Task: structure prediction
Amino acid sequence: MNKDTRLHPLFILFSLADTAKKLWPVLLIFLFKGAQNPNRILIIGGGVLFLFLMADVIKWRRFTYRMEADKLIIRHGLFMRDEKTIYFSRIHSVRVEQPLLQRLFGMAQLKIETPGGSAEADGVLPALTREAADQLRSMLMRQGKGAEPSGEAGDAEAEAREPREAGAAPLPGYAVRMTTGQLFVAALSTMNFGLVLAFFAGIISFADDIAKFIIPRSVFDKLLQFYETSVSGPMSILITVAGTLLLSWLLSTVLYIVKYYGFTAEQRDGDILITNGLFEKKMNIFKPERVQAIVVKEGLLRQALGYAEIEVRVLSADKKEALMLHPYVPVRQIPELLSRIIPGFDIGSVQHCAPRRAWWYYFRFRLLFLALAFLGLYWFQGPLAYWMLLLLPVLLLTGYLSFRDEGVGLQDRQLIVRNRIIARKTCYVLRPQIVALKLGHTYFQERKQLLSLTAHLLNGDSYSLTSLEERDLQEVWHWYRKRKGRV
Result:
């Protein structure tokens, strides 16, 4: 494929829909304001639509891509011509996504990620047929395997590949799928505040402006007055908080099911392919040797049930992106799952935990937060602040669990870091992927012979330990210094 190729003509429709999605608050206000003069709305709206349509047609004609021997070239731009050159040796992962509109027309978009690229993706082809997207994805990943990576990322990858080649190879065709029952239980056993906050933020950001045009001012004032008079006492506030938490939990359950519906992780031609999504179907593909770390997360409820979720951190454009390898798996099955999909990681256990004299370092910030919150609320609300003391048992419990669970482990080529804020996280990192290791201590830690540790990875992630024995973390330091023959 050495000639310029255009996207599918449906790119014009998708671009119009994307513009309407970005401008929907303005469009909604415009419709309500102009309801008294529909003819003017039709004339102005038709003119604006024609202008956007012409712009999208020009963008479609100017958007081309071309495959060459060692690179992919993408050219696009309405007024200014932009050209992106992506060398195959720099490609770390390729994603095929199908938002709802694209799925309705049997289309897909291809996102190509390289280290140091933009958070969205370094290269995006937004309108391809599903067959063309799959074919191009396979071609890019196949070409990427034949190209030698370069730079610090390439050196780390080449070194990280050694234990995988020496050990067991990935099992071709091996796949993991979630049943509907597993998905439902996984959704009920998690509380993803990130999904809930993102959902509410999208509504609240324009709710105030839209409410002025949809709800009459008198009705809005009466609703606000009713809320202020009804929610006045401590019991009413507790009921409101409990109702909000229940609503958030139910909403989190629904959003979780929508996000991970049809989840599949499989080995295909030596690559790892992860598929999930109900309305917006996403397909992520990456090479096993480019996995920076594996993170096993166990929430309080899931830990009691013996289940966890597995994330993989891959060097990509979005450095902080975590790909879900399995959202809900029995802990006892994790070693077998990883040995079949990502061999080279050994699911061992931590060898050194926090000593008893370090307990204060796991409670101090929690108690400081409670004290500041209590004083601030007491300043504005008086005795109502005493309800904040209900958080004390929760903060003491999470502090104790953090103290009990934090630890570090070493194996021949792997570092294990385990810590907890609410959920317990166990991170498995191969030594070549650690670009910096930092040991530190405060004056009081030095007197107690304690140290803190932070390990920085090539993709920008970092994993920390709060306060462990000095001799144990010095052992980690000497282990790291052996990298590439350093002593």
